[in-house]
Design goal:
With 69 residues, this protein is of the alpha+beta class. Helices cover 42% and strands 23% of the residues. The radius of gyration is 11 Å and the shape is globular.
Length: 69
């Protein structure tokens, strides 16, 4: 959740969760590792690739987080 809020700020977007479940998963997920050297957009893609229960998209000024389908 903190990482996603940071990424949204860095890219000038609003962080939006598509459901309460998506927000709960994001808040409970503990990240490990580093994203140094990546742009915020690339960092989100890298982190979300390791979080199979969630998916993301950048659209309409938002960083939108949804449950994975």
């Amino acid at each position: 959740d903190e990482f996603l809020a940071w990424a949204a700020r860095q890219t000038g977007r609003q962080l939006v969760y598509g459901s309460a479940d998506a927000a709960r998963v994001a808040e409970a997920t503990e990240l490990r590792g580093a994203v140094g050297g990546l742009t915020p957009t690339a960092a989100v893609a890298a982190v979300m690739a390791t979080t199979p229960s969630l998916q993301h998209r950048f659209a309409d000024g938002q960083l939108r987080i949804e449950p994975a389908q």
